[in-house]
Write a structure and sequence with these properties.
Layout (H helix, E strand, L loop, with lengths): L8 E4 L7 H7 L11 E11 L10 E5 L2 E5 L2 H16 L4 E11 L4 E9 L16 E3 L5 E3 L7 H4 L8 E13 L4 E9 L2 E5 L2 H15 L4 E10 L4 E6 L8 H10 L6
Parallel strand pairs: 7-12
Antiparallel strand pairs: 1-6, 2-3, 2-5, 3-4, 5-6, 8-13, 9-10, 9-12, 10-11, 12-13
Length: 260
């Protein structure tokens, strides 16, 4: 599973020098014997390696199904409980990463950098819906509007720091003084906390309606930022026009997404 919030702290992997064949397989077909080497931005999987005889908190790092190294001891001590908990649920933690390697002939120089979320950003602090749902693909930031009208709900989550939450998105029709308009409503724990702008409604409504047509609720990764005086809600979701067709095919055939 992907962290609830995007990663933004860089963490260097250790032990790449002991795995030259892994990088040869990762960069197979790429010209990584040039002076500058080759790089890719790829997902990296963190897995529990507590059976490691050198460190009972070991966290292994995998790229393209190749074991490329470990978190260092300090980072492993921090992240092992999270990774171990996911392993108990038959899940693995997936983060964004940069993999670089250069074949120098006698040896392979390599470096893997992970982009990690805050430790408390792996799960939302609130509960996911009890009804069938799908977590929409994570994307760029989308600002919610009219949160100031719903501070009675947001105050419980506005803690002076970024708080990861799960929100649901609903395509609704609102009656305005002279017309009706289609809007995307944002709900937190089943209560409205804002609306999307007309532009962002147009960007997300086709996706939300597609999900609703499969009998599922649309859940979006979000954070609450601010305090009891003023709070913002920010979504991290891919616009309909940018959704990977593979994700849509999986949704259509299975009724749930790869990131649910």
């Amino acid at each position: 599973m992907e962290p609830w919030l995007p990663g933004y702290t860089s963490v260097e992997v250790v032990g790449e020098a002991y795995r030259p064949d892994a990088f040869r397989r990762i960069f197979s077909g790429a010209a990584f014997n040039s002076d500058g080497g080759a790089e890719e931005y790829v997902p990296a999987v963190l897995s529990d390696d507590s059976a490691n005889p050198h460190d009972g908190n070991a966290v292994a790092v995998w790229v393209k199904e190749q074991h490329v190294g470990y978190l260092d001891r300090d980072k492993a001590r921090t992240w092992h409980p999270v990774v171990s908990d996911l392993a108990g649920r038959n899940q693995s933690m997936v983060v964004d990463a940069r993999a670089w390697a250069r074949d120098a002939g006698d040896r392979v120089h390599a470096r893997v950098t992970l982009y990690m979320p805050p430790r408390d950003g792996v799960w939302p602090v609130n509960s996911l819906p009890t009804e069938p749902y799908v977590v929409l693909p994570r994307g760029g930031q989308i600002q919610v509007t009219q949160e100031d009208r719903h501070m009675d709900v947001l105050t419980a989550y506005a803690r002076g720091r970024d708080v990861p939450v799960a929100v649901t998105l609903h395509a609704v029709t609102e009656q305005r003084p002279r017309s009706t308009v289609s809007v995307v409503e944002v709900r937190l724990d089943g209560q409205r906390v804002g609306l999307l702008s007309p532009t962002q409604t147009a960007n997300l409504q086709p996706l939300i309606e597609r999900v609703a047509g499969r009998g599922l609720q649309s859940v979006a990764r979000a954070l609450v930022r601010g305090n009891e005086l003023k709070a913002d809600v920010i979504l991290f979701v891919t616009k309909a026009q940018d959704v990977d067709p593979v994700w849509l095919r999986f949704l259509d055939t299975q009724g749930q997404s790869p990131t649910s």
